[in-house]
Structure formats: C-alpha cells, structure tokens
Design goal:
Distance between the termini: 79 Å
Number of strands: 12
Protein name: DUF3560 domain-containing protein
Helix content: 40-55%
Shape: flat
Organism: Brevibacterium aurantiacum
Radius of gyration: 30 Å
Largest sheet: 5 strands, mixed
Pfam families: DUF3560
Keywords: Coiled coil
Number of helices: 6
Length: about 300
C-alpha cells in the first residue's frame, strides 16, 4: 500500500515505495524527486504550501493504472507565517553549519594532498634531470614523474573542491541575512499586498478589458472557490502582518528608512547605495534619479538611505 501524505511543515511525500518496485519511473514522470536526506520521494516546493491536488491526483491515477494501491492523507492546515519563518531559519542555519563542516574537511584534504604532492616531487632527480633512455633508471624515473604528476593533479582537484565548499558555506551563511535585508523585506511586503489585491478582486468581482471593446464584468467567486480564496486571503494577511512587523522593527532600529511619494520631492537629493543624486520624478512606487554619467535610473523608496529637500 502506497500512502501519499501532505502537511504544511513536511510537504507532499509518498510512503511505501521500495527500490525496483516500478514506482520510480511513474513518480519521475509526474515530477517527483527522490530526497536522500529524508529517504522518500517528494514533490518539489510543496513544503510550506498547500497540496498540489492536480499533480497528486495525476500521480494517484498513474500509480493505480500500474496496479498499485494508493491511499491519501492530506492535511490542509496552514501554519502561521511566524512558524514557517522560524522553521526556515532553523533549516538554513543547520545547512550552513553542515556546509561549514564540509568546507573544513575539504580544507584538511587539500592540505594533505599538497603534502603528498611535495613528497612525490622530492623523489624526482634534482635539477630537472631528463630521463635517460635505455638506462637502468628509465622505468623508475618515469614512474616517479607519473606519480608526481598524479599527486599534483590530486592536489589541484582538492584545492578546487575546498574552494567550492568554502564558497557554498559562505553563501549559506549569508542566506538568512539576505532574506531579511531591508530591501528584500520591503519588496516582499509589496508582493504580498499585490497577492491580497488579486484575491480581493476575485472575492468582490472585477472588470477585465476595462475601456476596451471586450470589457467584461467578472462576478465574485462563489461556493468552494470562494472558500478557497478566503482561506488564501487569511494566509496572505497573516504573512503581511509578520513581514510588516519585521519592517516596522527595522525602521525603529534605524536599519531602514520610511520614505514614500509624500516625503520625497522633485529637485531634492537622495542618497542611494552610498551615492547622492537629484530626484527628477516622483512615482507612486519608485523615484527617477539623475546620475553623473548622463542617464536616469529608477529606484524603489526602500532603497533611499537619506533625503535632502530642494533648496528654497
């Protein structure tokens, strides 16, 4: 018996498969992946999301057609944004620690590889003596050169592996900080607000093709579709509350500014990415700034570090 499960915390998994039982090809066809760390097939990006009923139903149908018995255990409960983020931070910290340990192991292997390479090189005749063709030392000399060359290649490969491991560890260590950077938080809030507006249009009804020859009124969704959109709205509202709290704290701590179109004026100067520029246009979501190199650039208000009003 195969059982497809879903929870918001774990995502969509399938239990009961075994190597060589014929499920692998079916799951691959339906875009499942094998997770070595969890020892199970899973649907990518299903964690912290609602179940993908279309893909799950397609998978169930394919498995049953192949003769497998399949049961479903899908939990539609959604965790709060605070729980989701705390879990993400913990997982990322664990990944960063794991990669840092791996980088340390690779560095030790590199060190040992260079020692081995130096020893092999020291076994070669001094002064770069050439191979004496036909001499009794020819075979020994060739083997020593081959050993030295292979040891050098191993050391170079170990060096590259250590550098890559160090790079990945450094990237992982910066991920949480980047996710909670001032600009990323502000941009995320804007995206959340856009999602909420889209859901409200479905709930309240909206016009498509407005002003055109095919203008049409779309009535509010009803029934199960409305229930689904209401649950999505609650989820996005919770997410907005969480991230707005993060941004409010950043503003209170002086990490972020809080400029908008009501506080920035044309002709004033703004500091963005450490450089000052003159504001040429104030837009609802962005400002246009003149640069020293002769062309204008657009920036979001979250990127403004400081502002000076135009001189009277």
């Amino acid at each position: 018996m195969l059982v497809i499960t879903h929870t918001h915390a774990e995502g969509t998994l399938i239990d009961g498969t075994s190597k060589g039982d014929g499920t692998a090809e079916i799951l691959k066809t339906n875009r499942w992946r094998w997770g070595r760390s969890i020892g199970s097939w899973f649907i990518p990006r299903s964690r912290d999301n609602r179940p993908d009923h279309y893909r799950i139903d397609t998978t169930v149908r394919s498995l049953r057609e192949a003769g497998f018995e399949v049961d479903l255990d899908l939990d539609e409960t959604v965790r709060s944004a605070a729980e989701v983020e705390a879990d993400k931070i913990a997982r990322q910290n664990a990944r960063a620690d794991s990669l840092a340990a791996k980088a340390e192991r690779k560095a030790k292997k590199e060190e040992a590889a260079w020692v081995k390479s130096d020893r092999a090189r020291d076994c070669l005749p001094e002064g770069g003596e050439p191979i004496k063709i036909g001499h009794h030392s020819e075979n020994r000399h060739r083997k020593a050169m081959e050993k030295s060359w292979n040891a050098l290649g191993g050391a170079v490969a170990a060096k590259e592996a250590a550098e890559e491991a160090t790079r990945r560890a450094a990237t992982a260590a910066r991920t949480n900080a980047a996710r909670y950077s001032v600009i990323q938080v502000a941009n995320r809030i804007d995206k959340i607000k856009a999602e909420i507006r889209g859901i409200n249009r479905l709930l309240d009804g909206h016009t498509i093709g407005k002003g055109g020859p095919y203008e049409e009124w779309m009535p509010p969704v009803t029934g199960r579709a409305r229930e689904y959109q209401l649950s999505r709205l609650a989820e996005w509202m919770d997410s907005q509350t969480y991230w707005q709290g993060i941004r409010d704290q950043q503003i209170a701590d002086g990490q972020a500014t809080n400029y908008d179109k009501t506080t920035i004026t044309k002709g004033g100067r703004v500091k963005i990415r450490g450089r000052w520029g003159i504001v040429k246009r104030v837009n609802p979501k962005t400002i246009t700034v003149a640069t020293d190199v002769g062309f204008d650039l657009k920036y979001t208000y979250a990127e403004i570090q400081d502002h000076q009003p135009p001189e009277a």
